[in-house]
Write a structure and sequence with these properties.
Two copies of one chain form a homodimer. Chain A is of the alpha/beta class. Chain A contains eleven helices and 14 strands. In chain A, α1 packs across α10 and α2 packs parallel to α3. Chains A and B meet through α1, α3, α4, β13 and α10 of A and α1, α3, α4, β13 and α10 of B.
């Protein structure tokens, strides 16, 4: 019997989950649940759509709910609410609020006898896992996370809010020299500016003051002021032609010492190069949906993170197959 | 109270574990156990040495035994024997015999109420983990493991057995072009020869027939015949000066597709660059010694592999700390 998954929220992430489920024969999509009127939501694969408010009526048909909402306003309420009734997964990524969110979701999941996972994806998610493994193996070391090259939605939105800007796309790009120094085991101290470049492609209104726009971008606190920022003005056609994708990626590196005199250096690197950020995140979601379902079947309830899940739970293969073919 | 570790076998791996324990304040080295007469074994840190035959008398002082023997003859008997009395870890790496070894160790550990782990290190070990995670996330894909640049002891030994050879060191080197094709997402079919080069440094006896030696190396079945092999003859001084280290490393790559039409490609890469192969393996050992001890305290007995261990068990940090700082 396959694992019946429900998708809550049907944006890029929800669509990615819909596609990823097709690649995993032991999972099936039960339905999409949306706040929008179901008849207005057209799914990629013809999956059924129901009103989110009615999800409780479908309880017996759902093994795991994948919540594809945003961390700012959706997840803080949706995840604890749904965890009372379902096994759930979210991608909560507001780092400072993870302890509070964990605690709310944990209480709700335990109340319902369910298993929940928060902060699933690649960062938080696979990058977190790699930070943990690398630090545990090389305690005398230092880790570095670089993001990109990839599109940051938050920074793109910030540029779009500037007067005279019609559209914008911001790429976060690791500084090659910084990455090379880490790979060489130099353990450098790197400032924000040393680690990443921000490159913006902007479609301006006809007659807009481009110098002012460029200056407003480059001096914007938190978003751009601490970085070397490059601004290009392009046409709406160029934006559509060259910047429609949502690529991303990055790397987690740890450089550490071993030996009686700490004379040996080791570099552990985990690197992602993603054509589609939401589709990769969705693929991580579906693997962990399998794990959450299994954890629950084994009586392991409450809130979990990627740190708590035995790796074998992610794979459809049996323990014997894994030992024989992947070990 | 710290985790009391015993080392069985005192070669390069055992010495590496001795050093790694010093880097992990929540662990301590109880003693080294050797088949050699204890008074003839001089430890790096002054650790006590006992006869392996007496280890059972030290049962109450040991939380986890790290078995640093070889897969060919030591581990198939030592690990099940010791698992009857202790929590144990080994680095068994004879892939074809893993199912049999697992089954023997599992029965012994369960009989003693102990927790055992086999095939811990980087391959098998961290590379296996990365194969599993990447395959679970990107089921529609292909994985590639490259080893090196690094010293292969088995291949070095094979060259040393040739008549007229005084000493030899063999480096396994990934073929850059093959790695690049995988990184580009081409999903190439790669033969043994396409993936790795073998480079040998050989000290020959005075007057030895170098042409014959080179030919014997390059045509040796299994070890070299299927590879492009480069042979250099060097002096004993050069060998000592330039080839005393035991570096190694490699990478696990997975290239996979997502999207409704499989239109997006993603590359996951895990890469190690190690100054000392045995010291890195030892560092993985100590992190998993912590995990094995905790699994046992939680009543989780029997034989495990890296696939079965929740990542958090490897870290000395609490679940709260991990969520707050590494997630």
């Amino acid at each position: 019997m396959s694992i019946r998954i429900a998708i809550v929220g049907y944006g890029n992430l929800g669509k990615g989950v819909e596609c990823a489920i097709k690649q995993n024969p032991d999972t099936e999509l039960y339905a999409v649940f949306s706040r929008r009127a179901p008849e207005t939501v057209k799914t990629l694969t013809g999956a059924k759509v129901y009103l989110l408010d009615d999800i409780i009526n479908h309880k017996d048909n759902i093994d795991t709910v994948i919540i594809c909402g945003g961390s700012a306003t959706d997840l803080p309420t949706q995840t604890p609410e749904l965890a009372k009734h379902f096994n759930v997964i979210d991608s909560f990524d507001t780092h400072a609020k993870i302890p509070e969110h964990f605690s709310n979701v944990d209480a709700a999941a335990k109340q319902g006898g369910n298993t929940a996972m928060i902060s699933v994806g690649w960062d938080p998610g696979m990058f977190s896992l790699n930070r943990l493994y690398a630090e545990a193996i090389l305690p005398d070391g230092k880790d570095y996370t670089f993001w990109g090259k990839g599109v940051s939605q938050g920074h793109s939105d910030a540029v779009r809010r500037i007067e005279g800007v019609l559209d914008a796309r911001q790429y976060t790009i690791p500084v090659d020299e910084a990455v090379d120094r880490v790979r060489k085991g130099e353990n450098p101290e790197l400032s924000t500016r040393d680690k990443h470049i921000r490159e913006c492609f902007v479609v301006a209104e006809d007659g807009a003051d481009k110098e002012r726009i460029e200056n407003e971008i480059k001096t914007m606190p938190n978003y751009f002021a601490d970085y070397n920022t490059i601004v290009h003005f392009i046409s709406a056609e160029e934006m559509k032609r060259d910047h429609s994708g949502i690529p991303h990626g990055g790397m987690v590196l740890r450089s550490g010492k071993t030996g009686l005199q700490c004379e040996h250096t080791h570099i552990i690197e985990y690197k992602l190069k993603l054509d589609s950020n939401p589709e990769f995140t969705s693929s991580v979601f579906v693997a962990y949906a399998r794990a959450v379902y299994r954890m629950n079947r084994h009586g392991n309830i409450g809130c979990k993170t990627v740190f708590d899940i035995p790796p074998a739970y992610l794979s459809p293969k049996s323990a014997e197959e894994l030992r024989a073919h992947l070990l």
